[in-house]
């Protein structure tokens, strides 16, 4: 079964300095039909004005992944980590028993755009942690995060895997889904045909009870998407 969520049906927020689109219920946006999917709880597409950002605030018991699409994030947290996260890089912050952090647009002139993703951990508590990596733009599926850090991926505290999907125009591949698992596909750029459905930037698909399915770039530019393999 494939359930499509179109980009223009997502929730939205406008704070002036921040424009955000919410794939699932978040903050003042509440939609009982979209509370999350398996352990995936949040995908926010955030655009932040130069020098603006999120003041110091706290999280706990959540695996928080940021993926920068444009610009750079200046990150600081209570573990002592201070980093700049640039376009193309992924960050995984394990909140554990509690962490404080701030995120700002690192530029004085360029807009920041990034995806913020929350995944519930398998267990509560634990020591907060921070990881960051650029996985490049290798064609096909690249494992970005996994429970065991396989293939140099970031290690998350949940039985879930996040892949980056890159396909040239006309290219395709098949993804095999293990019994009892499900997938969530979020398109970042380009046009993706998923079985009999076509989805574009900001669109997403929930895939359940589908042992294997084809992913094909049907656009004229490279296709970039995120694929979540979930329990």
Automatic annotation (TrEMBL):
SUPFAM superfamilies: RmlC-like cupins
Limits of the Pirin N-terminal domain: 10-119
Matching InterPro entries: Pirin, Pirin_N_dom, Quercetinase_C, RmlC-like_jellyroll, RmlC_Cupin_sf
Sequence ranges assigned to domain Quercetin 2,3-dioxygenase C-terminal cupin in this UniProt record: 143-230
Similarity-based family: Belongs to the pirin family.
Protein name: Pirin family protein
Species per Swiss-Prot/TrEMBL record: Vogesella facilis
